[in-house]
């Protein structure tokens, strides 16, 4: 039955079976998962309630413990905060249990309210009075124990219930997985059976087609047939393939002769012969189109190669005037690229020839200028060398004169120093003379003073002698001898006064002469001083001249050295200019040879080539 069905129908049945099986699995799995979800959520709610009750117990334990701690030590404010925290915790989780609408909350609500009220009362006392007594702790203990007992009983019941629900959940999960596995296994078995049956029918047909095609591709035997008798798509393909193989077998015999002829023609084309064409005919329109295309291509190729060969012969004869132009060439093809490359080659050669001729002409012009400039450079270098030699000789003579002047200035400086020393010595002697005159003057003054004293003594003595004479006259005869003595004393005083006057006159004359000598010495010292200053200034001027002569000598020697070096460089430049002139002559010969070689070839723009303008040369 399956053999007579179409492959499309077989695959459709297989798809329907697969879809139905997986739909059953998904439906059953969805129902089971919903059941499991309900059990899981219910169990989760119970566990949340157990957790909330446990948190209430923890809050109550905080309140109870903190109140007992505060009773023992009311100086620490921390237990008051712990009581407040415990009350908040109890209220928070009591709201959670109440929100879940749990029936268990109704069992413990009265005990919970009693404990919270008592806990708030204890917290207020502790906050207000900062003190709690043992009675307050005991009053809180009773509602706490009742609340704790009820919560523990309810938690125990909830835990038992949670375990039961958890067991039911895992049992349901196990049975669901088992059932889904069985259903999937049944669906897979049915799917595999149908797949194997359908695959066998398809594989049988494919094997027959594969064998026929493999035989055709390996042995090239078109006489073999598929011989597949099924009525599905593969059977129809096999029947059409047999018909096609028969037509191929008939056409191959005609094509063999055509291909043989084509092979002969193309073999000669490969050897460079384009005159033979394909002569055989066939019923295959593609091969006939190939025949006409190949024959036309051979004609076109022959024409193209003739044109290319003709143009290349011109190029080999050094005539690059004409470009290579071939009609009916496909743009972007091999021949179009080859023609473009040949023309590019011709353009490159033309550009190179133009460049060569232009460079040659430019080089010719430049070499003429170079020859002219090198000749001028050589002549100028020779003249400069001669002038430098004369300049060097003159500078050597100037250097010798300056050196002699420097030596003369040095001698003048030495003589000036000797004169200065002599003047300084004369000035020293004049100074000593003045000092001696001052000493003489001082001595004369002292003598003059002594003479004045003597004169005064003589005057006093004369007065005393007069008084003695008066007394002697008064004494009469008895005073005669005393009168004689007085007269002698008066005579002595008179002679002393005369001698003193004479000495005074001599001393006055000596003082005048001494003062005159001192004046002369002072004038001499001033003259020596002025002479010394003039000699010092002269020595300074000689030193300046000496230093300037030294600097001038050093500068002239440096100039002399520079002129000598310049003379050597000029001689070297003259030699180089001579060598450069020979190179310029060779360059001029080469440039004319380049222009001559370029003129021997034919190319576009040959007669329009001009030398490049070089602004660096002044022709």
Task: Walk me through the structure.
By secondary structure, the protein is mostly helical. Helices cover 86% and strands 1% of the residues. The protein has eight helices and two strands, in the order H-H-H-H-H-H-E-H-H-E. Strands 1-2 form a two-stranded parallel sheet. Helix 1 packs parallel to helix 3. It is flat. The chain starts with 6 loop residues before the first helix and ends in a 16-residue tail after the last strand. The model has no long low-confidence stretch (mean pLDDT 77).
Structure in a nutshell:
With 619 residues, this protein is an all-alpha fold.
The stretches of 5 or more residues where confidence is low (pLDDT under 50) are none
Strand content: under 5%
Label the overall shape: flat
Q: Largest sheet, order of strands side by side?
A: 1-2
Our count of helices gives 8
What is the CA-CA span between the terminal residues? 111 Å
Describe the largest sheet.
2 strands, parallel
Topology (SSEs and partners):
Elements: H1 7-72, H2 78-99, H3 103-129, H4 134-219, H5 233-270, H6 285-316, E1 319-320, H7 334-475, H8 480-599, E2 602-603
Parallel strand pairs: 1-2
Keywords:
single chain; 619 residues; mainly alpha
